[in-house]
Amino acid sequence: MRCPRDTLKSPWQQCFSLLDSEQYNYVRGRSWRLPRRGVLGRDRDGTLVAPALVDYVSWTERIAGFAGSEDLKAAQWTVLLTGKMSPRAKKEFEALGWTVREGIGS
Prior knowledge:
single chain, alpha/beta, Trna Endonuclease, Chain: A, domain 1, 3 helices, 25% helix
């Protein structure tokens, strides 16, 4: 039995595929402090896009620190999730000015 082709992709390749599927351009994210090094995209109006290969995001102290980081407040942000956010996490992200898109690529 063979694995589906997507399951053989590295997390980096999956992030690029997610951005490709949503027609975003890639940008280098080295000037932002993200919890881990990541892939970022930019949409047509300049909003920065952070793809997240996750099943579920809960509102935790670590997530709150990321979403409300001073480094990220200067730009408009969208988070693309392959899964879902808890109702509280979604409410908090949106209150901080983020656009949340769930179930991308599924």
